Amino acid sequence: MRMLDQILTHNRSFVANEEYRPYQTTKFPDKKLVVVTCMDTRLTELLPRAMNLKNGDTKLIKNAGAIVSHPFGSVMRSVLVAIYELKAREVCVVGHHGCGMGSIQPEATLAKMRERGIGDETIRTLERSGIDLKKWLHGFASVEESVENSVRVIREHPLMPSGVPVHGLVIDPETGELTVVADGDQVEEKEETGLSYP
C-alpha cells in the first residue's frame, strides 16, 4: 500500500473513532512560547517531553538545523506572527548535538541533486541569478554557535518588540538533556541596566 493510502486509511479511522479529542486546543499557545527547532526525527516526541510541552502549549517551528538563516525568511515571519498575532511572549531556539546540518557537504548535496535529475543548466541559471547554492546549503561547524547566531537574528530583528526573551538551547537527541547557550532573561536584564549583551 502506498504511504499516502496508509495515511488516509488511518485518518478515516482516527476521525471516525474521535481520537482527535485529547488533542483539541486553541490556536493560541498556552505557555505563550515559540520553539524553533530542527526537523530531526529523534526530536519529534523527545523534545516536547524533555521541555514539558504538551499539545497546545507552544508554536513549534521546524526546519533543517533550527537555523534562522534570513531575517526576512519564513522562519522569522513565523516567529513574528506567533508574537504579534498568537500571543506568544518568549522564544526558544533549540539545536541538537549530532545534527545533520553540522556535517552537510554542499558539493555532495549538489551531486545528489544532479543524480536525481536536476540539470547543470538549472544549477548554473540559479547561480547566475545571484543564488549561492553552496552557501545556501551550508550548515555549521558548531551547534552552539549556530544557535547563538539564530538567537541574535531573532533578538536583533527590527520588527521584534522589546521585552521578548529569546533563549538558545542545545538538546542531546539521545537523553533529552538541555544545555543553555543563551539566556534571554539575562539579556533583558542587561538591556534594562544599559549594559551591552554578547
Automatic annotation (TrEMBL):
Pfam families referenced in this protein's UniProt entry, alphabetically: Pro_CA
Name of this chain's protein: carbonic anhydrase
Entry's EC annotation: 4.2.1.1
Keyword Oxidoreductase: no
Family recorded in the similarity comment: Belongs to the beta-class carbonic anhydrase family.
Needed co-factor(s): Zn(2+)
InterPro entries: Carbonic_anhydrase (IPR001765), Carbonic_anhydrase_sf (IPR036874)
CDD domains: beta_CA_cladeD
Organism: Desmospora profundinema
Catalytic reaction list: hydrogencarbonate + H(+) = CO2 + H2O
Annotated keywords: Lyase, Metal-binding, Zinc
Superkingdom of origin: Bacteria
Record-level Gene Ontology MF annotations: carbonate dehydratase activity
Signal peptide per UniProt: none
